[in-house]
Amino acid sequence: MKRLLLLALAAALVLPAVAAPKKDAAKLAAAKTPAAPNDFTGRYERAGDGKSVFILHVRQTGPNAEIEFSASRADGTGAAPEGNGTGALNEKGELACDFEDSFGNKGTAVLGKVRGSFQLTVTPVTVVDPRAVKFYGVIGLRRTPDRQN
Fold first, then answer.
1. Cβ atoms within 10 Å of 61's Cβ, excluding its own
2. I need a surface site. Which of 82, 132, 137, 139 has the fewest CB within 10 A?
């Protein structure tokens, strides 16, 4: 009885594979070719929010990158954190970084493409000074020309 069950199981696994149509070699090669990695090098600004300013600079070499950012209220009052960090492309093609800001807060930042624009998710992990945290969260960004200032 056990032999009969094993034979039936083997036949169920082998027959569909034998009967399946062979795939075109070009399609197989294309499926195995990895997508070109995203290059996030550039300058980004907060999109659509007139109350605060968030500027992100990314310098990417291959899969690895360095980031710098600054944030402030548009009227210049209150906390104005600056930060930097390093990271790399993750399996989703996003740039995932660890950062530390000028207030001593540490966390993660993930930059990705969403429907033709860019989205940065800044998540504080260690909060030393909460004044900077109000600038973090999910931030819509647009890539802008690099300014020398």
1. 9
2. 137
